[in-house]
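Why does residue order matter? Because the sequence determines the fold. Keep that principle in mind as you read this record.
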Amino acid sequence: PEDLLQNDEFWQLIKEKSKNHQEYTVMYASFSLALSPREILAEYPRLFRDINEIYQHKANLLVRLARDEEIKDFAGRR
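Structure:
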């Protein structure tokens, strides 16, 4: 999994699957930069109103990614 998180192709695919910049930012900051929701809010105060918004974006994208066949195929190749 760590190799996958350092793969540029993987992050490009996540960007394509994200509905907006906030979703992508939350995923990248959470998993690549290892920031907590509070740290994400502090780092990107103009993108998010509060921590709950960060949790919601993360949950929404994770649910969609879990069902996405292209993501499953990509992960299976690694």
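The mean pLDDT is 90.
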